[in-house]
Amino acid sequence: MINQNNIMFKKNQKGATLMVVLFLLLIIMVVGTYAIKMGVTSLGISTNAQINQLLSQSADTPLNKYLNTADLSRLVSYTTAVGAAIDDKGVNKEFIFCYKPTNNRAFGLNADTSIITANETGDDARLVNSGVSGFCDIERDFGSARQAVVTQVAITIPKSRDATKSPGDNLVRGTNLSEGTGLPKNLVSQDTIRVTTTAFLPAYANTSLNNVQTNCLSSNKTYISDNLNEDLSTKKTLRECLSEYNIPVVSQVQEFTLAAFLKQTEAP
Questions:
Q1: Measured distance CA(161)–CA(119) in Å, rounded
Q2: Quick one: CA dihedral 109, 110, 111, 114, positive or negative?
């Protein structure tokens, strides 16, 4: 004779064991999901930091090339973008070129430069008597063999005082106006230029690269990089255009004071 109570007890015991196992599996699943979520978040933060560092370094590179230039006469030659900008001195004109260290051409040549200016109406810009050689091809003009970052460079002549600078910052070192010390006798010329670099990762675009090229960096549609002049402060920039397509982008600006001196090597 089978004891019904014993059978019911065994069934209840098996059911309780199954419930405990399911509960433990649920806890493991919740903890595992939370761990995965935290890992993905940490990875995202790490990736964002690495992207920002990469873009910052890429934007710095053209600025450092100008900063470390020893031959000023060559830098201000009309064959370069800087020389062409100084010679032109056009109001609100940008002399733009693509930083392409992987090709064999010299850095910042005038022949590889386009001139753009902001339109009077609207927030975009237009070409001014120049070709399109200064626009980066975002599918092939990369800043290194990694083929990741594209860097656009813009040269402008500032027409308003930089609010971040103190009076006298543009004076040549060794002068003191309060003591009546004038400019050095061997000073030939002095000019100020502003260089804006825009480094970005086109691979992250949420649309086709052809659309980005057409709408941000082309003769049909382009935007200025430097809107620091008061009359351009409301204009849309290249950085803002690229950001609209989910493209990581970093823009950096630096002003340079170029002073040319004559050095006497032999007595007259």
A1: 23
A2: positive
DSSP for residue 166: P
**Tokens describing residue 175:** 């002068």
Tokens found for residue 59? 């934007």
Distance between CA atoms of residues 245 and 217, nearest Å: 13
Q: Judging by beta carbons within 10 Å of its beta carbon (0-12, 13-18, 19+), is residue 83 exposed, middle or buried? A: buried
CB within 8 Å of 173: residues ≥ 6 apart: none
Kindly state the helix (H) or strand (E) to which residue 133 belongs, with its residue range. Answer: none
The candidate with the shortest Cα–Cα distance to 98, out of 232, 225, 229, 244, is 225
Give the pTM: 0.73
Tell me: the pLDDT tens digits for 195-243? 999 999 999 999 999 999 999 999 999 999 999 988 898 999 999 999 9
DSSP state of 138: T
Query: What residues contact 98, with CB distance under 8 A and at least 6 apart?
Result: 112, 134, 135, 136, 137, 141, 150, 151, 152, 153
